[in-house]
Amino acid sequence: MRSRSAGAWLLRKEWRELIASRSFWLMLVLVGPLVGVSFIPAVQTYAEISAGAGSGCGPVCAPLDGIWAPTFSAYEIAAIFLLPFVAIRQVAGDRQSGALKLELQRPVASAIRIGAKAIVLLAGSVVAMVPALIAVVLWMSYGGHTYAPDIFVVLAGHFLNAGLTISFAMAAAAIADHPSTAAMLALAGTVGTWVLAFAGAVYGGIWASLAGYTPAALVALFQHGLVRLDVVLIALTLIASGLSVAAVWTRIGRPLRSRLAATAGVAAVATVLIGACSFAPGSVDVSESRRNSFGEAEERALQRIREPLRIEAHLAPADPRRLELDRQAIAKLRRAMRNVEVTYISRTSSGLYEGADPGYGEIWYELGSRRILNRATTDEAVLETIFELAEMSPGEEDDQTFPGYPLDARPVGAAVILYGVWPATLAGLGFRKLRRPT
Amino acid sequence: MSVAPVVPLLDVSNLGKSYGRTRALESISFAIHRGEVVGLIGPNGAGKTTLFECLAGVLSRDSGEIRVNGRTVAAGASPSDVFYLPDAIAPWPEQTVKWAMGFVAGFFGAPAHRQQDMVRRLDVATLIERPIGALSKGQRKRALLAIALAMPHPMLLIDEPFEGLDLRQARDVSSVLRDEASTGRTLLVSIHQIADAARLCDRFILLSGGRVKGDGTIDALAAQVSGATPVRDLEEVFLALT
Fold first, then answer.
1. Phi and psi (nearest 5°) for B34?
2. Is residue A401 one of the residues assigned to a domain?
3. For chain B, where do the domains classified as CATH 3.40.50.300 start and end?
4. Other residues' Cβ atoms within 10 Å of the Cβ of residue A260
């Protein structure tokens, strides 16, 4: 009877506990309408843009930006307001019911106990993504264009975000003595990342760097079709750290001091790893429209520049021009060139009262001993300035520009399926399952 | 010819446990031999559950030593020869008794025939398809006792085995527990109903305020009580010593 490993028994048990949980079924019921309220307006807006722009609309008619990013954003909401409670229930339920006192009597590594829960919760998150896949099928049925990497990268971003949510909620549930306390801790963590994002937007600097690794920033990158190695590694480190803390606190037999020491150890290792990972170079722009990259000819030309490029931008952190420059041109430049150093200078965070300073808004480009000023923040202006400074030409433009895929279609059947059929089916299945345990 | 000393199955010495500044257990020492049925008796808050949890490794002890079969058990570790059934639990409440028995059997390696035997002896057959969370207190107690008694561990720690049971059920459970002891199994049971304890146990450990106040048979404990009126039963011993 014991031939199956402890891990296999725990996996089976956790899966049964998950499908016996009301919170899981409620999450499944709700993700359908959540995807619906994202997908249906996205299709309608895409149709309006397509009708206005016509053929050859280019990046304006990219399904990644127009359909997949908004549709899958439903899972960002689910990751904040639904998934943590499912994860907390999965961990806290054992403690509340007394099952943990029985299970702990078989010596099994805490990592295996927590790992089984995490695997099952991730599997549950995959099941919850079915409504988004229904949206993909609906889009295809309207004649919409699909590019598999666009869809997979957005899915991957939300899957990673689900992993972060699960690990944090599991750690909170293992530490807290009651599920309601764990829920408050989990929500406090989410609010904390929002505060960090706000601080990053207002103060820039280290805050902006840290805010770049919050779940919202991670999802945003993937929604843009960009996979950055440092962000992925840091997310995986955070997931592993959260699960490790959960494993430490699940051993209720260990003295409190020992658990606190182990938690401090996990935090220290995680801090070192995160610091190291933040320097990991490399990123892949998997978007069909190459929205995170300059043109291929321009990138080849930029790669020929050997000298370090220094950019000094006199723009405040909350200035929209700085946001545009940083997120568009500078981000693309960093991907294309190895040696780019960007410095932002400002006296205030908003830049609203820096009008009297004649130097405010200046962007200085320095290559070797040459230095040029240009105030424009668009991709084209930045590239033009750099090529002028480098005394080179990007050469012939590539013919393979993104054509765009306009589609003037109505979201037929989406409301019926996502607002009606999905929730009704899942509610029925859940009701049946919860009433008749097997 | 020298005779090797009998090693107790469970040997506890100077066990201590505190919750913050509150000392729950202080210098607890006792030994239990194979096949004994020992009752842990004490008023509410005496530290009975804390003692069980420290013995089972569910809770870490602060000081002292626990040896099972002569081997020292590390603090917070679960001894492989001991299984603990806590009181007032409803594990896996959405799952059926049948599933719980299957899971525990698989996870801990309990033989299936033992479970079937316990289901019959504790009259759990009618409950087998019902979710654990839907059972009454007494039904749940019987189902969990069936699970615990089917375990292969030589020693069982059972917190309040008669809690929630009516008189007839309590007598039946008592009989099953005695049968188990007659097969060489060792039981340490916490019982707050003195009459139930007196019926079931060979020996008693009286616990009060986190300390052992007495350890022995009723007669041995009665001898410890000094007074004008001789004490005759466990109830009087309990009141006199705790």
1. -55, 135
2. no
3. 10-81+154-241
4. 12
CATH of the domain at A328: 3.40.30.10
CB-based contacts of A116: which residues, under 8 Å, 6+ apart?
A7, A10, A11, A13, A14
CB B103 within 8 A of CB B94: no
Domain count, chain A: 2
Please write the tens of the pLDDT for every residue from A276-301: 999 998 899 999 999 999 988 899 89
In Å, how far from its chain's centre is CA A237?
15
Closest Cα in chain B, distance from residue A154 (Å)? 35
Q: What is the distance of C-alpha A2 from the center of its chain?
A: 41
Residue A240 lies in domain: 6-286+408-435
Pair (A264, A311) in one structural domain = no
- For residues A319 and A272, state if they share a domain: no
Q: Which residue, among A105, A108, A260, would best test binding to B if mutated, counting the most B CBs under 10 Å from its CB? A: A105
What is the rounded average pLDDT of the residues A415-419? Answer: 98
pLDDT tens, position by position, A149-158: 999 999 999 9
Q: Say yes or no: A274 and A347 in one domain.
A: no
Residue contact B107–A21, C-beta within 8 A:
no
Minimum distance, in Å, between the CA of residue B156 and any CA atom of chain A? 12
Q: Taking the domain B10-81+154-241, which CATH number applies?
A: 3.40.50.300
Q: By C-alpha distance, which of B54, B42, B58, B43 is closest to B18?
A: B54
Contact B89 A99 (CB under 8 A): yes
How many angstroms separate the CA of residue A9 from the nearest CA in chain B? 6
Tell me how far apart the alpha carbons of residues A38 and A133 are, in angstroms, rounded to a whole number: 13
The tens place of each residue's pLDDT in chain B, 242 residues long, gives 556 668 899 999 999 999 888 999 999 999 999 999 999 998 888 999 999 999 999 998 999 999 999 999 988 788 999 999 999 999 999 999 999 999 998 998 888 888 899 999 999 999 999 999 999 999 999 999 999 999 999 999 999 999 999 988 999 999 999 999 999 999 999 988 888 888 899 999 999 999 999 999 888 888 877 665 666 677 777 777 77
Are A1 and B92 inside 8 Å of each other by CB? no
What tokens appear for B102 in the block? 């299957």
Report yes or no for ipTM above 0.85.
yes
Pick the residue from chain B with its C-alpha nearest to A433: B94
What pLDDT, in 10s, does the model give residues A86-114?
999 999 999 999 999 999 999 899 999 99
DSSP per residue, B92-160: STTSBHHHHHHHHHHHHT--HHHHHHHHHHTT-GGGTTSBGGGS-HHHHHHHHHHHHHTS--SEEEEE-
Amino acid at B216: G
A111 and A171 share a domain? Answer: yes
> Mean pLDDT over residues A393-398, rounded?
68
The beta-carbon neighbor of B96 closest among A2, A4, A437 is: A437
Whole-number pLDDT of residue A59: 82
Instruction: Tell me, yes or no, whether A217 and A365 share the same domain.
Output: no
Per-residue pLDDT, A436: 66
- Are B41 and B212 within 8 A, CB to CB? no
Q: The tokens of A149 are what?
A: 């990497």
- Report d(CA A21, CA A434) in Å as an integer: 8
